[in-house]
Write a structure and sequence with these properties.
heterodimer, A: alpha+beta, three-stranded antiparallel sheet, 8 strands, B: 5 strands, 21% helix, elongated, binds iron/sulfur cluster
């Protein structure tokens, strides 16, 4: 009877909920989303090409700027790939220090996610509390390496320096404080009816679809697929610690929220174990003066805060990589956005982008 | 919906719970800082702009012009011209320029510096870098060693 047509609407490139510069072209039928097309590339800096012109030691600062919320993981992944390529051994203490810092970074990244996700959905208060706790982690980072966000904290063969005096006690204090603070966030959100309405049954993806899309990290585990690189292919010292991989059942936004909350607790548990069992000795192994790997290819994956972070290096025997490629979880998770948002309401798109926890610096590289 | 949930919904239990948490946080110490008036205490390892320093004992310039920092800098922001040290043996930097505009504060330039017991180049605690023209960021050796090229915009 009526003439209807699909209305195309641009969301972004500048939109507070897109966590960077992301443009989403929405096809709307009334309030329902029938088409969804993410357009990326606004933050493309050509990091992979840039890396081909730099010595191996110069590349970690570039990696920091991929996923700037989880820069310790990026550092760790790249440096471990180079170590694997050159056969450099890292002493046990160095491995433990790396695990502690990577897990602290996971907590800080999840705190940023929780704050901004809450902000997107309309829960303003959580944002202030999570950023207060994140500040403590950034202070620890500053005390350890001198920088807060783009940390460049590891070096090939270990770390540059040991923990400064008082750092371990400070970390212990934070790790002991965190569970009570997580409880507060959960008190604000987990049973809040607005939060439940906005997250339950929103952005559902089945385990099979999640695997087929290649999702990793919390979006994959939210659908109940038990895959965590820390368990599946332990790197650094992760095989020495006891921790659980939380899994969801429904694959909706609420499950992914619960998973990230639990992951923070598990990270705190890992840090506590690592601090208790911190071995003595050197924190940096023997490293040749010139990093000159043999002619080889390497692909190394780690579990970043957002999922599986891959680093591919092709070496031609010189001091610079012949080809670099970063496999970023943000990019892979973002491509599932159309699948997640089909049939959702416009307002839910904000929640779905938030639940994927993308960092556009990582997706565009 | 179970009776329990219904009762909780009717009496706005989750709302009261949220309000209680907010109230509790109201009495925690403030953590915000009124920035220009209050300044944060920086960690000893804080990485501000890279600078050069003198030997604390002899007040001689430490840099021996080995060019290692120039080579490792990922942003190519250091450029050095080496010359003989006047009156002494060894070399020194005749001209040492750091372009602060390009520096990413990574701290890599400090790693290979060979001078002992302290490195000639170091990450200082200066971080307020605003200026009126881009030219001002190209910092010469004299300013790096002695002067304080950062401007203070105090009232
Ligand atoms: S801090 Fe990094 S970017 Fe800045 S001068 Fe040193 S090496 Fe270059
Ligand atoms: S590495 Fe140190 S000694 Fe060598 S040129 Fe740089 S500042 Fe001078």
């Amino acid at each position: 009877m009526f003439h209807t047509e699909i209305l195309e609407v641009n969301m972004g490139p500048q939109h507070p909920a897109t966590h960077g510069v992301l443009r989403v072209i929405l096809g709307l039928d009334g309030e329902t989303v029938v088409q969804c097309k993410p357009v990326i590339g606004y933050l493309h800096r050509g990091v992979e090409k840039l890396a081909e012109h730099k010595l191996y030691v110069m590349i970690p600062p570039l990696c920091d700027r991929l996923d700037y919320v989880g820069s310790a993981s990026q550092n760790l992944g790249y440096i471990q790939a180079v170590e694997k390529l050159c056969g450099i051994q890292v002493p046990e203490r160095g491995q433990y220090i790396r695990v502690i810092l990577a897990e602290l970074n996971r907590i800080s990244s999840h705190l940023v996610w929780l704050g901004t996700h809450g902000l997107d959905i309309g829960a303003m208060t959580v944002f202030f509390y999570t950023f207060r706790e994140r500040e403590m982690i950034l202070d620890l980072f500053e005390a350890f390496c001198g920088a807060r966000l783009t940390t460049n904290m590891f070096r090939i063969g270990g770390t540059l320096e040991d923990f400064p005096p008082g750092w371990i006690e400070g970390t212990r204090r934070f790790v002991d404080l965190l569970p009570s603070r997580i409880k507060e966030y959960e008190g604000l959100l987990s049973t809040n009816r607005i939060w439940l309405e906005r997250t339950k049954g929103v952005g559902v993806i089945s385990a099979e679809d999640a695997t087929n899309w290649g999702l990793t990290g919390p979006p994959l585990r939210g659908s109940g697929v038990n895959y965590d690189v820390r368990k599946a292919m332990p790197y650094a010292a992760y095989d020495r610690f006891e921790f659980e991989v939380p899994l969801g059942t429904h694959g909706d936004t609420y499950d992914r929220y619960l998973i990230r909350m639990e992951e923070m607790r598990q990270s705190a548990r890992i840090i506590r174990q690592a601090l208790d069992g911190l071995p003595g000795g050197d924190f940096r192994g023997k490293v040749p003066k010139k990093i000159k790997p043999p002619i080889a290819e390497i692909y190394h994956v780690i579990e970043g805060p957002r999922g599986e972070q891959g680093f591919y290096i092709k070496s031609d025997g010189t001091e610079k990589p012949y080809r670099m490629r970063f496999k970023s979880p943000s990019f892979v998770n973002l491509q599932a956005l159309p699948a997640l948002s089909n049939g959702a309401l416009v307002a839910d798109i904000v929640a779905i982008i938030g639940t994927l926890d993308i960092v556009l610096g990582d997706a565009d590289r | 919906m179970s009776v329990g949930t219904l009762v909780r919904r009717f009496f706005l239990v989750e709302m009261a719970q949220g309000m209680w948490i907010t109230l509790k946080n109201h009495f925690r110490p403030h953590i915000t800082m009124e920035y220009p008036r209050e300044r944060p205490a920086l960690a000893p390892r804080f990485r501000g702009v890279p600078r050069l320093r003198r030997d604390p004992g002899t007040a001689e310039e430490l840099c021996v012009g080995c060019l290692l920092c120039e080579q490792i800098c990922p942003d190519d922001c250091i450029s050095i011209v080496v010359d003989k040290r006047p009156g002494g043996k060894g070399k020194m930097a005749k001209s040492f320029i750091i372009d602060y505009e390009r520096c990413c504060f990574c701290g890599l330039c400090v790693d290979p510096c060979p001078t002992t017991p302290i490195t000639a180049i170091y990450m200082s605690h200066d971080y307020e870098l605003s200026d009126y023209s881009r030219q001002e960021f190209i910092t010469q050796r004299e300013a790096l060693v002695d002067g304080h090229p950062l401007k203070r915009y105090a009232k």
